[in-house]
Amino acid sequence: MMFGLPFGMLVEGAVSLLLMVTIGYCVVLNERLKRLHADRDAMRVMVSDLVQATDLANAAVGELKQSAVEADLSLRSRLEEAERFGIELANHVAAGQEVMQRIARVTAAMQKARSPVEPAPVESPTPSKLQSALQQLAARQRIRGDAA
Question: Is the pLDDT confidence value at 1 over 80?
Answer without folding.
Answer: no
